[in-house]
Amino acid sequence: MVVFSIKVRGSQSAEELVSVLALYLKGPSNIISLNASQLEFLTSPVQSKKSMGKERADSNSALKIRASTAKIVELDENGESLEIDDEVQEKASTQDHELKLDPSHYWIIAFNTTWSGPCRYFEAVMARCSINYERKDVHFAKIDMDMFLEGDSIAERFGISLAATTIDLPTLILFKNGKPLKRLPLKLQTKVGGEVLGKVGWDRSEGSVVSAFELAKLGTGKESTHKEDIMEHHEASVQSQTQEEEGLYSKTTSAMGTQSAPCVSTTPDTPVSTSGGETAPSTASESASETDDPSSQAKYTKNVQEEEPGSAEGGTTAVPPPTLNGEPGSQLVNMVGDKSVRSDISLRVLQQLYLPDQSNAYRKLNHEDMTLSYFHSPSFPAVRAITNHERKRILVTGGAGFVGSHLVDRLMLMGHEVIVLDNFFTGNKRNVQHWMGHPHFELIRHDVVDPFMIEVDQIYHLACPASPPHYQYNPIKTVKTSVMGTINMLGLAKRTKARFLLTSTSEVYGDPEEHPQKETYWGHVNPIGPRACYDEGKRVAETLTYSYMHQDEVDVRVARIFNTFGPRMNENDGRVVSNFIMQALRGDELTIYGDGQQTRSFQYIHDLVDGLILLMNKNYKDPVNLGNPEEYTIREFAEMIRSEINANVDIMSLPPTEDDPQRRRPDIGRAKRHLGWAPKFSVHQGIRETVQYFKNNKMEQSWYAT
Ligand SMILES: O=C(O)[C@H]1O[C@H](OP(=O)(O)OP(=O)(O)OC[C@H]2O[C@@H](n3ccc(=O)[nH]c3=O)[C@H](O)[C@@H]2O)[C@H](O)[C@@H](O)[C@@H]1O
Predict the structure, then answer these.
(1) Co-location of 366 and 410 in the same domain
(2) % of residues, the chain, pLDDT over 90
(3) Ligand 1 atom 30: residue of nearest CA
(4) Stretch 193-209: mean pLDDT
(5) 354 CA distance to ligand 1 middle (Å)
């Protein structure tokens, strides 16, 4: 039996790939396409034989899948799909079910996900099954569309035969010791309704790569009848390497068994995306954050696109026109769609969506013709090269939000692998757009209220709306996010032995009677007021965190974050900094709630990120305040913003908000003592950068707000 676990993006490519593999295997196969969300539902008899008793042990060949959207495809000996009873398919997609791991079948499990968690989990399950039940006939093939590093596999740890392959459609990139060795064109060819529906091939000379063909042999001991195909393709791929150097390769894909017309296009080659890049100028630098390791205080160079990307027409000059049937000189198709339904659009514009161009990650709204253009860079900001041993796999919940995205930037630049979970309620993909596609980065839409499984070393748990209008918008959801989200993440930390950092808030002190606020202060919170969903939610989150520490020995950290501001705040966030800046930029009156005598202390985002990373990496477990003690009344703050922007606007008073804390200023003695941390940015410097950010984004953001 050969088990393929395939990690891909998009169910279509999963199905295409497994179909092609099935053809090679030329035997009865079962194909299951799973979505990432099904991870936690994927269970199997992983207990030891002893603990399970005979009855359960007999079910060793069953894989239980509670799959809400699992799709099952069965193929006959010729690789033709068998009709699956509607009822069975319906049942598979709506109910838990058990799949018999019939050893005479190949099992191809396609994980439709950008996240390696399900694959790893599945491999572990399978490995345990095969060890517990002495199933020597289980072999693993792992195909990871993003990146797969040799040896980085649970299956391998269990000593199971493993074929390590990395495929990055439409090219195959071979990795050795984490470094891309070379890229080869991967051809998927389809004949409509024909006998040979697919071809897949890759260079096997690297040793680490075992073809599906060889796997078929491993699984069945039989010679494949497709050796010639493979050899032929091998030669073809060597030939096309030369073409690749010239910057071209061709790709044809089609779903197996469907009568779809072949689609042929020519795309430019792109360099393997690793650190740095030849095309993007290196113009800015960012200093590393402090960690326990003084050597980490290096400077990172960040590639920033200087050139303003042009309009849709001007920004993609690197994209060559398509050729029909791959033959240069054929008539070019340059428009698609139909004017009558206004679906007509230039192919060139569409190509920007799926073909990488030469400009850096960037987005531009053209107000003249109201088009929105996204640009993508072939190069990423350079990240520090660290060893596999040093590199941590870090989960950041809420990583697409204001604070989260800055934390992600820093962790990425530090050279770590970062996985972002976000439900995008207040977070935004644009905040992390510049990392999308980077081999160290994964972005997953997931609500922490639902359980989530992954293997990580550290968890920064930020997910929760933080602005009062946002968290009061749906208070029940806010409480659920704080409570259930934190339970889920603590459960994950417990299982994986990851270190867990909770981002709590100064709001746990409520409307404080002690000033400035020390961590030892218990707070003054109205448990039934409009802010309670957030304040009490975070207080329970802290309680949970320390309960898991005491009861289950989870390694925890708690940061109590005071008012923070900076670029990537949403202009409609509702918090005072973004409100005042946007009001002043628009020439509107600044709105003060109440008499403006209430105080706040504002810290700049980079200081907070420094503090969070320090806290995570130091050995201090009690709550720590992170904030800038520079305290302003809200009226003083309004005046400061007005003069920074040089805006000739009035300040107006609005009714006070209920339970608004009257004084807030952190005592940061603990952070100084235990983390060696103190804010470095003056509020003025931070405000200047933030104003610049809002100015740059003003036109576009205002349009979005409508
Ligand atoms: O900025 C933050 O990081 C914090 O923001 C909020 O706490 P809050 O201090 O109420 O934040 P704002 O909504 O920015 O309000 C600050 C003060 O400005 C006042 N304000 C706000 C907005 C406005 O337009 N005018 C105005 O006078 C508020 O009434 C309040 O007194 C969140 O509750 C915290 O979790 C979060 O850490």
Answers:
(1) no
(2) 36
(3) 660
(4) 29
(5) 41
Tell me the best of 526, 562, 593, 609 to mutate to test the pocket of ligand 1, counting ligand atoms within 8 Å of each CB and taking the most: 593
Asked if pLDDT for residue 513 goes beyond 60, the answer is yes
H-helix or E-strand spanning residue 444: strand 441-445
Task: Output 343-350 pairs: Cβ under 8 A, ≥24 positions apart.
Answer: 346/312, 347/321, 347/322, 348/312, 348/313, 348/316, 348/319, 348/321, 349/312
Cβ of 660 less than 6 Å from ligand 1: yes
Q: Whose CA is nearest to atom 11 of ligand 1?
A: 575
Q: Which of 660, 621, 664 is nearest to 521 (CA)?
A: 664
Q: Which of 349-358, 482-491, 568-577 has the lowest mean pLDDT?
A: 349-358
Instruction: Give ipTM to 2 decimals.
Output: 0.96
Distance, CA of 35 to CA of 13 (rounded, Å): 13
| Backbone angle region of 636, left / alpha / beta, with phi > 0 → left and psi within -120 to 50 → alpha | alpha
Domain-terminating residue out of 324, 344, 375:
375
- Secondary structure of 625-668 in HEC code, one letter for each residue: EECCCCEEEHHHHHHHHHHHHCCCCCEEEECCCCCCCCCCCECC
Residue 512 CA to ligand 1 center (angstroms) comes to 15
Residue with tokens 């096997």: 204
Q: Is the CB of 592 under 6 A from ligand 1?
A: yes
Tell me the three state secondary structure of residue 265. Answer: strand
| Residue 180 pLDDT | 37
State in Å: Cα 592 to ligand 1 middle.
11
- Asked whether 507 lines ligand 1 (CB < 6 A), one says yes
* 561 and 652 share one domain: yes
- What is the model's pLDDT at position 634? 97
How far does the centroid of ligand 1 lie from the alpha carbon of residue 600, in Å?
Answer: 8
Q: In angstroms, rounded to a whole number, what is the distance separating the alpha carbons of residues 257 and 588? A: 62
pLDDT score of 13 more than 70: no
User: If you write DSSP's letter for every residue of 379-413 in order, what string do you get?
Assistant: -B-------TTT--EEEEETTTSHHHHHHHHHHHH
Span 527-539, average pLDDT? 96
What's the whole-model pTM score? Answer: 0.55
Question: Which of 163-167, 432-436, 445-449, 527-531 has the least mean pLDDT?
Answer: 163-167
The reply to whether 543 and 425 lie within a common domain is yes
Residue 133 a catalytic site member: no
350 and 468 together in one domain: no
The domain containing residue 262 runs over which residues?
A: 2-268
Q: How high does pLDDT run on average in the chain?
A: 63
Which one of 362, 534, 548, 604 is the catalytic residue?
534
Q: Which of 345, 375, 405 is the last residue of a domain?
A: 375
User: Domain tally for the chain?
Assistant: 3
From the CB of 505, is ligand 1 less than 6 Å away? yes
| 452 and 523 together in one domain | yes
The pLDDT confidence band at residue 627, using thresholds 50, 70 and 90, is very high
Assess if residue 388 is contained within a domain: no
Q: What is the CATH number of the domain that holds 585?
A: 3.40.50.720
Q: Are residues 218 and 354 in the same domain?
A: no
Q: Decide if 220 is inside a domain.
A: yes
Whether 357 and 404 share a structural domain: no
Q: What is the DSSP letter of 560?
A: E
Protein residue with its CA nearest to atom 6 in ligand 1: 467
Burial, 369: exposed, middle or buried (Cβ in 10 Å; 0-12, 13-18, 19+)?
exposed
Query: Cβ(448) to ligand 1 under 6 A?
Result: no
Q: Is the minimum distance from the CB of 600 to ligand 1 under 6 angstroms?
A: yes
> If you measure from the C-alpha of residue 468 to the centroid of ligand 1, how many angstroms do you get, rounded to a whole number?
7
Instruction: Verify whether ligand 1 is closer than 6 Å to residue 267 (CB atom).
Output: no
Task: Tell me, yes or no, whether 498 lies in a domain.
Answer: yes
Pick from 94-103, 376-385, 496-505: least confident:
94-103
Q: Are residues 356 and 433 in the same domain?
A: no
Residue type (1 letter), 139: H
In a domain, 277, yes or no: no
Q: Is the CB of 563 under 6 A from ligand 1?
A: yes
Q: Could you tell me which residue, 100 or 422, shows the higher pLDDT?
A: 422
Return the pLDDT at 387: 81
Between the CA of 636 and the centroid of ligand 1 the distance, in Å, is: 14
Atom 22 of ligand 1 has which residue's CA nearest to it? 576
